[in-house]
Amino acid sequence: MKISILTLFPEMFDVFNHSIMGRAKEKGIIDISIFNIRDYTKDKHRKVDDYPYGGGAGMVMTVQPIVDTIKKAKETLEGKVIFLGPRGKTFNQEMAKELSKEEHLIFLCGHYEGIDERAYKYIDMEISLGDFVLTGGESACIPIVDSICRLLPGVLSNDESYKDESFYNGLLEYPQYTRPYEFEGEKVPEVLISGHHENIRQWRKYQSLKITEEKRPDLFKKYQISAEEKKIYKKFSGK
User: Fold this and answer.
1) Is pTM beyond 0.90 here?
2) Strands (DSSP E) found in the chain
3) What mean pLDDT comes out for the span 175-192?
């Protein structure tokens, strides 16, 4: 997958050179290109913002450098242009799954008081990270790109690594334990050291259901629980 990020602050994306994302880049699974929007402005002082018509607080990103940067990002490969802004749908795991199927994603990171309205005709989709205010789209872009890319084949060492994770199948993840077996008087649940794989699977499924019901009842309410899961829930909870 090709990822193009259009930003005023390219240095913020050094994070993608490390850990799992860094290894995925080295393997050629993902290609991340960073475009500095200032490089495409026609203003001799490299300005990319101006005062809004009609007055008001703050500055607005001007349309010309945004559009020209988008066109540059599309030169070698067409792609879906995504603006990270407050009008968009709130990002979630289902959206990550759908976007992971794309060949090329172009992320436009806004800043200041927003972008000139005329730039929107070059944008295919708007995504919001949540109902809160950030200093710029860069802070939203990093977790969104990470979430999408880790679903690509070969990015994680084992496909099961993400299929069992929180939100992937609509539930929160089950509890995890590692050595030592006992810490401050608390022991690892016996089922996990039993070697009985079916019992472990059922215990983990029950824990996912229980934790989701307790911690995120909104998710649990939307989750379509299967007949087998109902049996597992009843078996462990007694309800």
Assistant:
1) no
2) 2-7, 31-36, 49-50, 60-61, 80-90, 104-109, 125-128, 182-183, 186-187
3) 94
